[in-house]
Amino acid sequence: MVGEFARGVADAVPCDPRLPLAHTFSGGHLRSIMTLGQLNPTNCVIFKEPLLYFFYGKPAYRPNGNQDPSSDHNYHPVCLLIDSRSLVNPTRIFPFDTGGFATGIYSRFIPATMKIDDFLLIPQMDMPARVVQLFYGKNINYYGGQPIKLNVASFGLGISKYYEMSRFKGKAKPDNRCSTIEVQSRTTLDLAPD
To answer: How far is CA 56 from CA 9, 66, 114, 131, 180, in A?
Structure first.
């Protein structure tokens, strides 16, 4: 079922060129990923199924806040950039990090009456570029977190709340995951040098 957020974004012309997908993980997993030559879905506590997570066009990573800082390379973040054309059938796409939504980081902007599915986009790989076009106008603005001026009065609540959150510049702003497009996949992704 497509909601008002997806309908509003679907009318935008995709921004080109398409950006890569960023998959970030801790360094301790790098050897097994390179040995297997693939990324495998792991259990997601939010959606209750194995998923691979990607961010469209830029890495967004937040280490586990319960861990002390470490110089151990096993805890360093590693980011793989993947051609977005490699992911043909995404499972879900959201305009922000769903983990942040689930933990209430965006509650200052998004009312409790709204659910995560209110922000669910059509699971097609042109949708992230449509979000970029609608809210940021061009890729460099998206990458830098600089939304364009947009009259959201003609759009629904979801678009206006997302826009408000992406434009907020105060001290209590959530980190860049609040405006970084998330792409989920249930399928294993084979890695290739190209």
So the answer is: 15, 27, 23, 10, 7
Cα 181 from Cα 128, distance rounded (Å): 7
Any idea what the Cα angle at residue 183 is, between residues 176 and 80, rounded to 5°? 75
**What is the rounded CA–CA span in Å between residue 95 and residue 176?**
11
In angstroms, what CA-CA distances link 70 with 15, 26, 29, 36, 76?
Answer: 39, 12, 16, 27, 8
Helices 157-167 + 127-136 axis angle, to 10: 70
Whole-number Å distance between alpha carbons of 150 and 44: 34
Over residues 85-102, the pLDDT tens digits come to 888 899 999 999 999 899
Neighbours of 125 (CB within 10 A): 19
pTM of the model: 0.89
Residue 84 neighbours by CB distance under 10 Å: 20
* Residue 31 in tokens: 């050897």
For residue 179, count CB atoms less than 10 angstroms from its CB and return exposed for 0-12, middle for 13-18, buried for 19 or more: buried
Q: What 3-state class would DSSP assign to 90? A: coil
* The Cα angle at residue 12 between residues 61 and 56, in degrees rounded to 5: 15
Q: Are 80 and 37 in contact (CB under 8 A)?
A: no
Query: Both tokens of residue 134?
Result: 């609608």
